[in-house]
């Protein structure tokens, strides 16, 4: 009689993997911030922010804090401000479904991704600063990354290749 390969009568592993509990605090924070920023972004016009005008005309659904927060995000990181609510809602899913993967390195990777997108959008030099994008479509960060660092060092193609990678 041949010897069995394993002494386990089951066809699976002899142990159960640990089940990580949901991180409810992170889930609630990500839901509130993600939903609030999504509503503020979809309803934003530049005349709602007290940073863009002295006479506020419109009212944002997220309130004056929402309009001013969006203006700051559009000033700082430009078009990649649209990634922030997406990342927060994704972190909501991760914190509920698989909280083991809710790590600091993922947060750093999301910041690098936002910075790379800001630099890539700043490469569109034909789009000038406007009321919606006070520092241009790449924001202040995109201008620093592309115009001040990468364009002169690597050229347009090299900067696009590095930021796209």
Comma- or semicolon-separated keywords:
single chain; 165 residues; mainly alpha; 5 helices; 0% strand
Verbal overview:
- With 165 residues, the protein is mostly helical.
- The protein is 57% helix and 0% strand.
- The chain is built from 5 helices and no strands.
- It has helices at 24-42, 63-77, 83-97, 104-122, 139-164.
- Helix 1 runs antiparallel to helix 3.
- The mean pLDDT is 87.
> Count of helical segments?
5
Structural class: mainly alpha
Q: Gyration radius, to the nearest Å?
A: 23 Å
What percent of residues adopt helix (DSSP H or I)?
Answer: 55-70%
The H-and-E topology, N to C, reads as HHHHH
The proportion of strand residues reads under 5%
Number of strand elements: 0
Which consecutive residue ranges, at least 5 long each, have pLDDT under 50? none
Quick recap:
The protein has 165 residues and is mostly helical.
Write the layout of secondary structure elements.
Elements: H1 24-42, H2 63-77, H3 83-97, H4 104-122, H5 139-164
Helix pairs in contact: 1-2, 1-3, 2-5, 4-5
